[in-house]
Sequence to fold (336 residues):
Amino acid sequence: MRRIRGQVNVPIAVASLAISVLLFFIVLPNWMSRRLRPITVPLTTWHLDNKKFFIQKEPKTMKVYAYLSDKDYDDVSGIGSAEADMTDARAGNNSYPVSLYPPKLRKIVQDQDLHAAYTLEVVKSRDVEVDVVETGKMSDPTLVLGDVKPDSQRVSVEGPEDEVLRVVKARATLKLDTLTKNSSEVFVLLEPVDKDGRVIDRVDVHPTQVRVTPKFTLAPEQKQVFVQAVFDDKKLPPGYVVKNYFTDPQSVTATGSSQALARVSSVRTEKIDLSRLTGSQTIIVQLHPLGGGIVLSPSSVGVTINVETAGINRLNLKPSSNRPGAQFPFVPGVPR
Fold:
């Protein structure tokens, strides 16, 4: 029996055709935009024994390729990451397998056997001395920081051998403006430095900081004290006498604790030898130390001694008035 073809539903057919055409023009641009595109992802390492190896040279990113449309490319851009497996790390230049994340990115990349090249060096270490240096000024001017010592006198530095050998000390910079009289202990970061004081970035310090215990004293006071010239018992050569003498400066600055300075009003010179003077002369003489931690500035003075031939009434000599600091004449053996 011959089958009779049913009548075509024209409206439905037209609608189906229109939908097909519409879908075609929607899908076609996306399909036609597919091409091999680069995707850059950050690259890190894992399973690297940092106590054994130091990375001398490493890539920070990895570039992979995948056939993607514009839309798919936007979906995966910025979400990926990569890790190089350093389980079997070796010194020198070597390539290590790389894992890509997330899984949806790993599945679409063209190259499924990813590797990255690294240059590793064996870590070298040695001990160096800790050097505490001070910077800035105390916020409290009445306080002075005494001798400071770190809790660790020596620390370990680690890194590439050539860099480690450049390190001469670990510098701890103590900032004085951060200290107060209540500062019982301060933790200071350490920096590995070379002979010129430059920080060596590729070297690590262990531990990274030291503890410093500040000890404070009261700031020293200052006062002006007069200078007294002191002569020894030796006589002038026969036929000569001392007309007068004076010191320059007449007074010096004494610095020390208030208790030590309270008992000081003058300072003496070291003994001056007159036995070879046959004419006026200026002699540089050291000041005699006062002790008690007192510091004199300057620590020496000039003593000008005017000498003349004998034959005049020495007791009627008058102090010189044309030079600052003139004093009454001194004659050995004659009380002043």
